[in-house]
Amino acid sequence: MGEAYFYHLTRQSINEALVPLLNKCLDNSWRVLVRGKDLDLLKVLDEKLWEGGDNVFLPHGLLGGPHDIDQPVLLAPEGQTPPYDCLICISDANVTCEEVSLAKRVCIVFQGDSSTDVEHARNQWKALADEGVAAKYWDQSSGNWELKAETPAK
After folding, report:
1. Which residues pair with 3 in a beta bridge?
2. Which tens digits make up the pLDDT trace of 97-137?
3. Which CATH superfamily is domain 3-151 in?
4. For the whole prediction, is pTM greater than 0.85?
């Protein structure tokens, strides 16, 4: 069974935080699905990832392209579940206990300055913990990522 990692962003935007997270996934040779509720946000993320920065190239695509099956990172709205090793949920996208069990890792990335994001993450934490999913809560308020809470798998 996989684990759910909750990343509480207080010093970075989702776009900034995703680049190192996606690189770590690719270093593990994981296929990644980035799921969001907001298709417009996914389109902006798609453009930002193409811009790169610091000579970083992240191979990816937005669902609906001709090479979706070959993309190491695929951006997709809720309701679409192509195969993946790691599922990253942004913009209040939902994840189920079953999806966590099928993945090597699930990441829920949320903005600390959005009460909606924080509330959604809390609800996801409770729902997954109630189902016995191992979860870890990471916070970056000190400047570095720190593990602040965890629940073991039941």
Report:
1. 105, 134
2. 999 999 999 999 999 999 999 999 999 999 999 999 999 99
3. DNA polymerase III subunit chi (3.40.50.10110)
4. yes
